[in-house]
Amino acid sequence: MRAGQQARGRRNLLAGAAAAAAEWLLEPVEPPAAAGHPPAPPREEHVVVAVIALGARSGATTVARALGAELAARDERGACAVSTTQGGPPPLGTPAAGRLARALAPAIAAPVRACGRLCLVDAPDPVTLADAALRLAPLVFDVTDHAAAAGVAALADRVVLVGGPLVEPALAGAVAASLARVGPKPIVVASRPPEESAWEGRAEMELPHSRLGAQWALAGREPRGELGHAIAGLADLLGAQE
Known about the structure:
By secondary structure, this protein is α/β, with parallel strands linked by helices. 40% of the residues lie in helices and 15% in strands. β6, α6 and β7 form a beta-alpha-beta unit. The longest helix has 19 residues.
């Protein structure tokens, strides 16, 4: 199948999946305005990961950036694009992240900035961002808006659900089952779970608390120590998914 046909098929799948998701989500999602997009040029495929917060203070942004930094370190071009809603001046970016930012900026018409190994992108349109990033670098969506979760999950190759200490563990199973109807089966991650918590048996991975590791991740760098090992394991798990 030619690249143009593949791109049109993927956009049609996303629009249809988002429309179907509106029937079962608590907050219906609007399908992205993808119908008018021209076919994407032939490209080298890179993975698209959706990291979705199950609730407030789940640590999804830390996971998204830590995972992005790990994927960047494993990619031959040395950078990863990560969507963001957080402003503020970022730390100094690597040359590879700067090159990615300059390459993405003309294609998405949205603010971009290098941050460590990451290119942080303030892009409201996930389809446009995916079209631009897939031929350049891995892409991680940091999803905190539940209304947008189904549309982004349908676009992603991998989905990670992140639940924190304030999230009821039973919610993870319900959300994972719902999102699996429109995208890949999610991997559930428990971030900073308390000892003897109800997350046991409900999460494929548990991420330890590490203030320093979180700071490294938010700066676009691979976290050190136990958190770094856990994120590397998560990246391995994503790579093992079919």
